[in-house]
Amino acid sequence: xxxxxxxxxxxxxxxxxxxxxxxxxxxxxxxxxxxxxxxxxxxxxxxxxxxxxxxxxxxxxxxxxxxxxxxxxxxxxxxxxxxxxxxxxxxxxxxxxxxxxxxxxxxxxxxxxxxxxxxxxxxxxxxxxxxxxxxxxxxxxxxxxxxxxxxxxxxxxxxxxxxxxxxxxxxxxxxxxxxxxxxxxxxxxxxxxxxxxxxxxxxxxxxxxxxxxxxxxxxxxxxxxxxxxxxxxxxxxxxxxxxxxxxxxxxxxxxxxxxxxxxxxxxxxxxxxxxxxxxxxxxxxxxxxxxxxxxxxxxxxxxxxxxxxxxxxxxxxxxxxxxxxxxxxxxxxxxxxxxxxxxxxxxxxxxxxxxxxxxxxxxxxxxx
Length: 368
Fold this sequence. Notes:
Helix content: 40-55%
GO molecular function, one term: ATP binding
Distance between the termini: 43 Å
Strand order of the largest sheet: 2-1-6-5-4-3
InterPro entries: HATPase_C_sf, HATPase_dom, His_kinase_dom, PAS, PAS-like_dom_sf, PAS_fold, Sig_transdc_His_kin-like_C
Structural class: alpha+beta
Organism: Stieleria bergensis
Protein name: histidine kinase
EC number: 2.7.13.3
C-alpha cells in the first residue's frame, strides 16, 4: 500500500477532514493537477490516490456532461471543467461524465470549492451525487460536503502552526513566572494568559474531535443513572437556583447497549443547553422509552423561551453558535455521534413552551 505523503496529507487535521467527508472529494492545485483524493473518490474512479497525484484532472473528467455547455467557440470539451476550476462558482453545481480506471463512465454532480492555503490556491471538487443514486440522500451529502470545504479552509490556515505556537507561548510563560513569583498581581495576569491559551488549545481539540472518525464501543448503559450523574455535575455550582430534573423512564432504559462515553457527551451538551435556557427553579424533563421498539427515544425538554427560526434550522450545523465563546461544534459532534449509532437527533419548540430535543436510536430488543 502506498503511503499518503502529499503536502496536504501531511496536515493531520486536513487529512482527517478529507477522509471524514461523506462525499467523494478530489483536490487539485492551481494548474489543475490532482494533489489528493479521499477513499470514496478512489472507490468512485477505481484508482488509488498515488496513481493520480500529479496527473491532470482531465484523467477522470475527460469531457463535459449534462451541465453548463461550453460555448460554441470552445476548441474542446476538455476546457469545460477546467474553466470552472479557473473561475469556480461553489454555489452552482455542474454535471459531468466521469471516467473510471476500467474505462467505464458515469454521470456525477460536481461542486467546486476554491480553497486558499498558506502555500497555494487549490480547488476542492465534490462528487456529491452519482445520478443513479437516491436524490434525497445525496442532497444531504452535498450539504455536508460543502460544510467540509469550509472546515478545510479554516484548518489549512490555522492548524499547521497553532500547536507549536501554543507550546512556545506556554514555555515562555513558564519562564516568565519564575521571575514574577513574588509579584502576586503579575502572577494573576500570567494565570489569566495561561487560561486564554488553554481555551485556544481546547478549541483546537474540538475541531480535531469533530474531524476524527467515530468508533463505537457499545456496552450496557443505564440511561437514567447516566443522565442524573451528568445533571448533578452540571448543576453543582448553581445551588437552589438550579432547575429541577424530572426523570421518567421505563425499566428497559436501564440496560441499553450504547457507547457510554459518546452518549454521555451528547447528554452533557443537551443538558447544558437546557440548563442554560431554563429559568431559575424551573424543570427539565428527561424521558426515555420505546414507543417504536426496537428504537429507543430520549426526550429532553426545558421550559425556556424556545428557539428562534434560525437557531431551530441551524443549531446542528458545524460552527453555528449563539454564544460568545466556543467553536460551535458541540451539537454538530452530537449529531455525528447519534448518526454513528444509526439514529437521529432533532430539536424543536414544544407546543406548551420551551425546547424539546428528541433522540431516536435503534438498539435491539428492549427485553433482551
